[in-house]
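agent> call fold_tool(seq_1)
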Amino acid sequence: MGTGRVVLVVAAGRGERVGGDVPKQYRMLAGQPVLRRTLQALLQRFAPGEVRVVIDPAHRPLYEKTVCGLGLPEPLAGGPSRRESVRAGLEALAGDPPQDVWVHDAVRPFVSTALLDRLAEALATRAAVVPVVAVADSLVRRSDGAVERYVPRAGLARVQTPQAFRFDLLLRAHRTVPCGDFTDDGSMVWACGEEVATVEGEEENFKLTTPSDFARAERVLATRRTVRTGFGFDVHAFAGDRPLVLCGVGIPHQRGLAGHSDADVALHALTDAILATVAAGDIGVHFPPSDPRWRDADSAQFLRYALEMLALAGGRLEHLDLTLVCEEPQIAPHRDAMRQRLAELTGLPLARVSLKATTTEGLGFTGRREGMAAYALVTAGFAEGEPT
């Protein structure tokens, strides 16, 4: 038996009860796929190399997009049922088995580090541990739409994941326990005659199964929402031999702006402002002017890249405010088209796109008509506190 642990995240299901065009583990929740939120929660305590996701191979494109940037190992192929998926994951690890294996539902995105700590502490002295939440409501058994009998709730609890086991114990349970009405791995270990210890679970660690669960999850995330602002600034000199592009819109003018890319001073400032919300440096770090790939490039791709980085960190752009500083050209005739293009590029409603222009009353390089400057201020919302 090896050392260490592996956390199997079961993400091969279709999630048909919740509806929608994609399996529920890939459904968006406050701007991010559920599976990504679950993985980010686990990665608060576990190293990326300890987390193995079990997926339906047919979902591979969805999976790759979902886990981009998390540094996880290759996913494992699952089966048509939850039990078969866990079994497949265990068998894939059996050649070089860890000492411990944890199993977690992909659609429980609110698992806390405190719960993970309780499980780890209990597993140090036990071979199987599951989190449970005591039943608070009265319980009945129904028949034909009526109460058949009341069930005493004393001692009853609801079982959650993640569940933690000695690897050899859980593998033996999966290999030997006949197929039956087993809805979690702890019940299979218990069916082998082994003791299954419990720790206190958490009400917030609920499983997303129905549309109402997703609505509840959105409410939970709303209570955790934080806001960050980002500031960007850029300057470009005028050049007479190229078109002028501002906010992704071609502007009729006798001079364009000098730069390695299309020199869209507005989009450059906006890109820097968005990168600032996740402390990711500036546009030059990601698209250096020394790289020939960006010669005459459309600056919209820089903006899209910054928005992707924001999304990967769990953020969503909420508002932008751009100020252009120039004596020429006049911005007012093009303002509506520029705002519309900014809304298209960022996905923001037009009412959250602010664009202004001013002059320096003839002072400085802009006053001398030598170039243009742009200031950008953005607001980004993060559903789970600090960006990761």
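agent> call fold_tool(seq_2)
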Amino acid sequence: MVVAQKAIDESKLMALLGRAVADWGAMGGGALVLIGDALGLYRALAGAGPLAVVELAERTGTSEAYLRPWLIDQAAGGYVEYDPTTDRYSLPYEHELALADETSPYFIIGGFQLFTAVAEAGPRIARAFRTGEGMAWGEHNPLLFSATERSFRTAYAGNLVSSWIPALDGVHEKLAAGATVADIGCGHGASTILLAQAYPASRFFGFDNHAPSIERARQAALEAGVADRVTFDVAAAQEFPGGGYDLIAYFDCLHDRGDPLGAVKHARETIAADGTVLVVEPMAGERVEENLNPVGRVFSAASVLICTPNSLASGGQGLGTLATERQLRELFTAGGFAHFRRATETPFNRIFEAHP
């Protein structure tokens, strides 16, 4: 019996192969981005003008044999620019902001570190597809914890005080006058510390169930000079102590709780009568097709590798990074909140507020 071969749409096949080649390059290029960061190659290029390979090698104390293909890779990926007339490489100012300036809100190195760290969990997550088991946050490569802080801090530095807080009803005024704030799932404390620096009259409490992160947060508060008004403690989202909070915040963490409803109910129990809950969540659409874009690709990967496993490890079902606004609204309604709205957004985040 002869089976007729299906006709091949060559353009569709070539398009897929092209995307695969681009992804191979991205995987290898990501490793080279981290090498560039670790060796200070981007910082050496920043503001230096066009440099020949030998000049960059001399500036950085690196081998030309490695540096030459590294620069070609970076130019092919669009991270640095190459001038064939002079055989020199340069880093545009806009790229400096993303690759060489860690204080910039556009700094992107942390994202490369984050996905490098969680890629190690791939074999375990593959097994979990069949077993349904979870993987707790603390079981990942420890690089994930510092990478998350390094990655998310840039967005918080660029938006939290300047636009997110002002978008909330009356919250800026309360914080300026002196309020009590709980930052749930605070990690290394980047969001807590930024708020404390901006609002010295307020008192801040950061809670996280990952003890090593709390230790680092305490050190960070000392280094930032805000330890007198910031307290960090180990506590779960549905059990953190205190009450009468004027602001309770969840920065990119509510979706991976094992018991998000329990967390929201506890927030309802501990918030002041006129208090506000701030919820920062990854950008996601209400329908699947609204997530079929580069941002949705990043967040769905994070959901598979980090957020859903963490929720399942705690006995939950996992909202995941692509939780819809409808799901979040229903969660807060079920948790006892009367008001819920999207206050503002960025290309990467949705910012919601809830009131009792």
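agent> summarizing second result for user.
Residues 117 and 144 are 5 Å apart (CA to CA). Residues 20-99 form a domain with the Arc Repressor Mutant, subunit A fold (CATH 1.10.10.10).
agent> awaiting next instruction.
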